[in-house]
Amino acid sequence: MTKPFALIVDDEPDIRELLEITLIRMGVDTQSAETVGQAHSFLAEQPFNLVLTDMNLPDGNGIELVGHIQEHYPATPVAMITAYGSVETAINALKAGAFDFISKPVDLSQLRDIVSSALKLSDNRSPTSQDAASHSEIKTLLLGEAPAIAILNKQVGKLARSQAPIYISGESGSGKELVARSIHGKGARASAPFIAVNCGAIPSELMESEFFGHKKGSFSGAHEDKQGLFEAAHGGTLFLDEVADLPLSMQVKLLRAIQEKSIRPVGAQAEQPVDVRILSATHKDLEQLVQKGTFRQDLFYRINVIKLDVPSLRDRRSDIPFLAAHFLAQISAECDIEGASISASALDALTNYEFPGNVRELENIIERAFTLCENDTIEIHDLQLRSDNSPAEENVVDEAPQSVSTSQIATSVQTNDGPLAERPSEQSLEDYLESIERTEIEAALQATKWNRTAAAKKLGITFRALRYRLKKLEMD
Asked: Which residues lie below 8 Å from residue 294, measured CB to CB, with a gap of 6+?
């Protein structure tokens, strides 16, 4: 097997020697250059799996070299060596296309992590891995045929080659987490964890412990050591959804963790290094929040190294029939039903609908319509589209995308059996509603001696709706 080959560009002999020794011990052959001109010559002569370059060079700077490599050798990862604390330089390098950066004095552990990640990325592009890569690409492509999605997929592929923090902007339900998963799945970290967290769903008093973990006995109720989200995502990607909802006190701690690439669990005496790529998203206007003083400007610049805009469904209406068919195929397959379809009139109605809840709302509408439709064909009345596409209703779609059968069952419990039992504080709303569904379905089946047609009638839902719920609740 051919050894990987790295180009080291630095005019300081001591730094070059340190990098050479470290890489050789990792099984990587090296070639060293002292100037940008020498680097250009070596790059033209042979391919490299990795380039490590200093910022300041006698005949130019590392940013220019990064740009040259991006233009002429886009498959070659480049890591920038920057002066200690030079965050602005590091960000500029990442924006120029650098894979990652490392500060002087060089931390050998961090260097080895960067080299390992770069080599994985380089291996993924080798001819021997093309078949595996093509299968992976199919899984990580964002669905759609509109020009906006083609552009987005191209951007995702390019950004997956970097380790730069990315800020994903888009409306609720437009697919921001799917974009983040696609970036992770196409990159060097694909085999490592992808950890997604909704920043607005964590109580402020638990936030530090959730992100950084805690030691046993560090506070009341800490009965054992707990791993935090950063540690859980080590080697992989941490996706911060609704990052705008972080309180200012947590923003400071998050900024330090990102800049220093280390965390300190609650109750711990020492920091521990973490290797995590940060992707973040929100449907809010972060720049406006920075101006208002509710979001730190330094954190904004640190997570917004590269911004990626996700188009709304309204901006790619031509994809609505394709996505509707995709969701219907998925749902009908789960119920072992073949030949499900959408009528032409229903498809026209969907295409002309505004979709304030975007792709997520479309999926919910198809799920609901399939549950209610007869003869395996979704008609326009099955869609139950709102005549008012007001933004005020969008949150209902986003926060509680339950199908009609769920609400019907919940309503029947209230009507027939009195008020619902209070939801336990530790139980999520989704789990709570599912427990109600399960209880009511079991009771109806027992009362009808497991006659599903009679049970569906007793519950006030269609036989199809009952069959779908049984499949979804794994009661079939």
From this structure: 248
- Report phi then psi at 297, rounded to 5: -65, -40
Centroid of chain to Cα 365: 24
| CA dist., res. 80 & res. 78, Å (int) | 7
- Taking the CA atoms of residue 411, residue 416, residue 418 and residue 423 in that order, the dihedral angle to the nearest 10 degrees is -40
Half-sphere exposure of 79 (CA within 13 A, CB side): 27
How do strand 29-33 and strand 341-342 relate by DSSP bridges?
unpaired
- Own/partner long-range contacts of 397-401 (Cβ < 8 Å, ≥24 apart): 397/173, 397/356, 397/357, 397/360, 397/361, 397/364, 398/172, 398/173, 398/357, 398/360, 400/429, 401/360, 401/361, 401/363, 401/364
Report d(CA 292, CA 347) in Å as an integer: 43
Residue with tokens 């974009």: 179
**Per DSSP, what are the bridge partners of residue 262?**
273
Token representation of residue 13? 């002999």
Tens of pLDDT, residue by residue over 292-311, are 999 999 999 889 888 999 99
Residue 402 carries which DSSP code?
-
Q: Say which amino acid occupies 205.
A: E
What φ, ψ does residue 241 adopt, rounded to 5°?
-80, 145
Two tokens, residue 98: 């650098």
Inter-residue contact 357 to 398 (CB < 8 Å): yes
Q: What is the pLDDT of residues 6-45, one digit of tens each?
A: 999 999 999 999 999 999 999 999 999 999 999 999 999 9
Q: Which helix or strand (DSSP H or E) is residue 342 part of?
A: strand 341-342
How deeply is 424 buried, as exposed, middle or buried, from its count of CB atoms within 10 A (0-12, 13-18, 19+)? exposed
CA distance 307 to 220: 41
Q: How far apart are CA 463 and CA 374, in angstroms?
A: 10
The answer, as to whether pTM is greater than 0.90, is no
CA distance 302 to 278: 10
- Cα dihedral: 231, 427, 464, 349 (round 10): -70
How far is Cα 178 from Cα 156, in angstroms, rounded to an integer?
11
Q: How many CA atoms lie within 13 A of 180 on its CB side?
A: 28
* CA-closest candidate to residue 242, choices 170, 310, 296: 170
